[in-house]
Design brief:
By secondary structure, this protein is α+β, with helices and mostly antiparallel strands. Helices cover 37% and strands 18% of the residues. The protein contains three helices and five strands. Strands 1, 2, 3, 4 and 5 form a five-stranded antiparallel beta sheet that branches.
């Protein structure tokens, strides 16, 4: 499957995922989706990213969202892990940044091109 088709698949799955979150009683706000290579390199230098210009954000295959319950932003890994499991269960290529080794990126949800982004 080519990149453009994978991007379309990601957009559809992500829309379904956001609807699922609302059905579970959560609310979301959007963060960053597409990222320029220049911004990716800045984030790498600032320690906000481990991928740099190889980020799936640069390929339109990652989206950061902020998840709220009862008006409160959820940042705790234990509270979010079920949500991460749900996202990853939607496709073998999906990854949640909360499961990254050595780098906790709780707002990050992505779809790999040929393999998932993270390794547990």
């Amino acid at each position: 499957m080519g990149l453009r088709n994978r991007q379309s698949e990601f957009a559809k799955e992500f829309a379904e995922f956001v609807v699922w979150l609302y059905e579970q009683g959560y609310e979301v706000t959007f963060g960053e989706a597409q990222r320029t290579e220049e911004m990716a390199e800045i984030y790498l230098k600032q320690g906000k990213s481990k991928a740099g210009k190889d980020s799936l954000h640069c390929k339109k295959l990652a989206f950061d969202i902020f998840i709220f319950k009862d008006g409160k932003l959820i940042e705790d890994k234990n509270e979010l892990s079920g949500i991460g499991i749900k996202w990853e269960s939607m496709s073998e290529l999906n990854s949640w940044g909360g499961f990254f080794k050595g780098f906790y990126d709780y707002p990050h949800f992505s779809k790999g091109i040929d393999k998932p982004e993270r390794v547990r």
